[in-house]
Amino acid sequence: MPAQDRKALLDNLRLELKARIHHYEEHQHRSSGALNKDLDDQALEVQNDEVVARLEEEARLELAQAEHALARIAAQVGDFCEECGKPIAPDRLKALPYTTRCKNCATSNEGESSSNKAF
Ligand SMILES: [Zn+2]
C-alpha cells in the first residue's frame, strides 16, 4: 500500500491510542482517591486498577510501535524489515500497519516482547 495510506492509518492509530491512554490515566487518578468502607469493594477496585494499568502499558507499547513505524516511514525505510533489511510483504503491512519487521524476523523473535505477540 502507498506509504501515505499507511502513514494515515498509523496517525489514526496513534491518536486513538493516546485517547485510550488518557482515559486509563483518568481512571487510575479517580480510583486512587476513592475511599471504600467495604473490603470486598476495595479488593475489586485494586483488581480493576491492575487491569487498567496493564491495558495502559499495552497501549503505550502499541503507541511506541506505531511511532517507531511512522519514524521509519518518514525515513523512507518503512517498507523494509528493520532486522534483515528485506522488503516487508505488502499484505503484512496492510494487516499490521505498525509492523517494522518481516514475517520471518517477527516469528523468530516471538515472545521477546509482548508488543509482538500479534505478529
Ligand atoms: Zn526481516
Automatic annotation (TrEMBL):
<protein>
    <submittedName>
        <fullName>TraR/DksA family transcriptional regulator</fullName>
    </submittedName>
</protein>
<dbReference type="InterPro" id="IPR020458">
    <property type="entry name" value="Znf_DskA_TraR_CS"/>
</dbReference>
<keyword id="KW-0862">Zinc</keyword>
<feature type="zinc finger region" description="dksA C4-type">
    <location>
        <begin position="81"/>
        <end position="105"/>
    </location>
</feature>
<dbReference type="GO" id="GO:0008270">
    <property type="term" value="F:zinc ion binding"/>
</dbReference>
<dbReference type="Pfam" id="PF01258">
    <property type="entry name" value="zf-dskA_traR"/>
</dbReference>
<feature type="domain" description="Zinc finger DksA/TraR C4-type">
    <location>
        <begin position="79"/>
        <end position="110"/>
    </location>
</feature>
<keyword id="KW-0863">Zinc-finger</keyword>
<keyword id="KW-0479">Metal-binding</keyword>
<dbReference type="InterPro" id="IPR000962">
    <property type="entry name" value="Znf_DskA_TraR"/>
</dbReference>
